Amino acid sequence: MINWEKEINSTDYFAKNFSLDDLEKFLRQHQETNFKKPEVALAFILSILALLLNASSLFAMYKGKGRKMSANARLLVSLAVADMCVSVSVFWQIGMGASVKRNDCLHIAHRSFRTSSHVVSLLNLCCLAADHYCAIVWPLHHAAVVSTERIKLAICQIWLISLLAGYSLFLPTSKGNDPRCENTTYCLRLSCKGYDSEYFIFVLTPISLIVMSVLYAVIFVKIRDMPGFTHGRRTVQMERNRKGLITTLIILATFCFCFLPYCIFEIYTIIGLKLDGSRHLHYIQWAMHLDYYFYDLLLLNSLADPIIYAIRLREVRVGYRKIMRHCFTPVDRPPVNSEINTRSLNTFVPLKKNIQPNYHPVTAEIRTTGSEML
């Protein structure tokens, strides 16, 4: 979300006509995070749903696969944890409310944590697209190229880069040319500089979209050129490839629907404020509410990720079945095997002597064929 205090402070018009106290009162009046505002209530509901769905997907993945997870499953675990961090950042922001000043170090730490969570999600989406690309284009070398050790190293690098990008807001800065930033605290000077770590999201979003579009376009061409894709006998592998294409279209559509409107609005508003702050004076209050709605749209991505990625995995589906079976199976019901054993113990069947088995060749062949079919 836009750091309105920093962006307004960076414009010449507001720097000359507004003091820091007036700006603080204005932001407290129009940026209160209470549940009376529908955009705040919607963000809270979406965050709860995303947190529960990602947590259940992680538990189902553990029940279905255990500790022996594939490379793709490890990337999904990293993505689910990042989406859960996004939900936690929303709870953090609502919990702070208007009690914390916008230039406080706690507020800056919250913005850094939120930015790091979104950067991790973007990088994980690109890595999942690359893993899908290697599985389709290089199926024989996929296990060697995307090994477990390499995936562990890649996940560590993703989180390290994201933390450095998000918490780069705390890097040392000068006082700047604004006289209001003189003789102030360190965190207040951070809000006076023109840098914001959320710019990483605006840069990574189009790059991620281009990378994912190119990789999934190659995957589409590769699967389309496979024999029997358009006509002929449908095999299990071809059905998997068809489902994979549908999944790729859903991935790109969800990414464009959730990330692009938010980034376009943020970039347009920031550039507009820097070019002509007086022209946007009457639209700031309207833009603040719209900014929250676009961020709610971005939160839908954290809700869609476990549905698109995790539920389509076999081990996750197996984990969900185990959880449902454990929750809905009656405890007092005796197992089937014990009932059969009890009947066999209580039933006396006399043995008949001198009975030879039937070794007719036709009957033996039919029995053998039937056992193989089963």
Automatic annotation (TrEMBL):
It is found in: Cell membrane. It comes from the Eukaryota. GO terms for molecular function: G protein-coupled receptor activity. It is a multi-pass membrane protein. The chain crosses the membrane at residues 40-62, 74-94, 119-141, 153-170, 199-223, 244-272, 292-311. Residues 53-309 form the G-protein coupled receptors family 1 profile domain. Keywords: Cell membrane, G-protein coupled receptor, Membrane, Receptor, Transducer, Transmembrane, Transmembrane helix. Its main location: membrane. SUPFAM superfamilies: Family A G protein-coupled receptor-like. InterPro entries: GPCR_Rhodpsn (IPR000276), GPCR_Rhodpsn_7TM (IPR017452), TAAR (IPR050569). CDD domains: 7tm_classA_rhodopsin-like (cd00637). GO terms for cellular component: plasma membrane. It holds the Pfam family 7tm_1. PANTHER family: G-PROTEIN COUPLED RECEPTORS FAMILY 1 PROFILE DOMAIN-CONTAINING PROTEIN (PTHR24249:SF372), HISTAMINE RECEPTOR-RELATED G-PROTEIN COUPLED RECEPTOR (PTHR24249). This is G-protein coupled receptors family 1 profile domain-containing protein. It comes from Dimorphilus gyrociliatus.
